[in-house]
Amino acid sequence: MLNKINSVIIETMLKNILGLVGSPRRYGNCEIFIKEIAQHFNFEHNLKLIRLPELNIMPCRACYGCIMGNPCPNRDDLERLLKTIINADGLIITTPVYYFGAHSIYKRILDRGFLFYNYLNDTYGKPCILINFYGIKDRIGASPQALMVFAHSLGLKIKASVSIQAALPGEVLFDNANKEKAEKLAGLLFSDKGIENRYGCPFCGSEIIRMVKEGFICTVCHGHFKVDSAGRRKKIKEGGILGPPEHMFRHRDWLRGMKERFLNSKKEIVKAISGVRDKGEWIKFD
Ligand SMILES: Cc1cc2nc3c(=O)[nH]c(=O)nc-3n(C[C@H](O)[C@H](O)[C@H](O)COP(=O)(O)O)c2cc1C
């Protein structure tokens, strides 16, 4: 009896950590650094890993079916991935930088993000760490933005977003400073501390910002802000896209309204496109 109680206690204390490996490369930096971070956890844990580029993730068909409560016509690995995320207590999300951006698997998953709404109540608030690996000094491009959008769209709580230079597989561990970084990140995942936000968007911390005439718009949360002559960031207005589920569900409601609008506008659409509809010749590859 005592043994059974003990094992129940241990199981409830045991944390499920999910490592999302954004690289196809075996023993690459994404994979190895997740394992290094897990070395430093000072609590009982299970480390599960998914190599994302191996998943079968099909393109969104833009049918809006899932928005209206219907099953997704794509039969692939996406919903299994989302269920696995639900079972995790915390996530380590990694990508290699490829051509100044994150690995395309993140965009492929994100393009199916309407389906996230079905899982948002269960994914919301799970802590995560985001890590970008890049090979050439300063050539990180927009990669951190992709991981941030991925995490925010699932309602995950970003505890850190870091970019580390390491080109060869496993090179991240050549440098002891990176081992120390891994230890720090391990301590952050379940801590009370939030993402450091000293330079980026004053709302969400993203450093990938769009310049407009009046100031800046964050490419993640779409908050508007300015920077004064002393370098201080001044919030202008929130983006109104990301946030707790009830907030994000407002966008789903808006999309549902658009589906209605589409159905009511069919005649007008047919008329508007009639002049150009059949122009050009489609090339199909076998
Ligand atoms: C197709 C490809 C594109 C890459 N593009 C960039 C890049 O734009 N900027 C950069 O700094 N490194 C780039 N790299 C280097 C990788 O980001 C780097 O080797 C990283 O450590 C890979 O992570 P991994 O070891 O987990 O696979 C590229 C590598 C490949 C294979």
Distance between the termini: 64 Å
Structural class: alpha/beta
Q: How does CATH name the architecture of the domain at 2-196?
A: 3-Layer(aba) Sandwich
**Strand-residue proportion:** 15-25%
**Class of the domain at 2-196 in CATH?**
Alpha Beta
What does this structure look like?
The protein has 286 residues and is an alpha/beta fold. It has a domain at 2-196: Flavodoxin domain (Rossmann fold), CATH 3.40.50.360. The protein contains 9 helices and 9 strands. The strands form 2 sheets. A 5-stranded parallel β-sheet has the order 2-1-3-4-5, with helices on both faces. Strands 6-7-8-9 form a 4-stranded antiparallel β-sheet, with no helix packed on it. β1, α2 and β2 form a beta-alpha-beta unit. α2 (29-39) crosses α7 (176-188) and α4 (104-110) packs parallel to α6 (143-153). The protein is globular, with a radius of gyration of 22 Å. The mean pLDDT is 94. Bound molecules: flavin mononucleotide. The site of flavin mononucleotide has 19 residues, from α2 and β4.
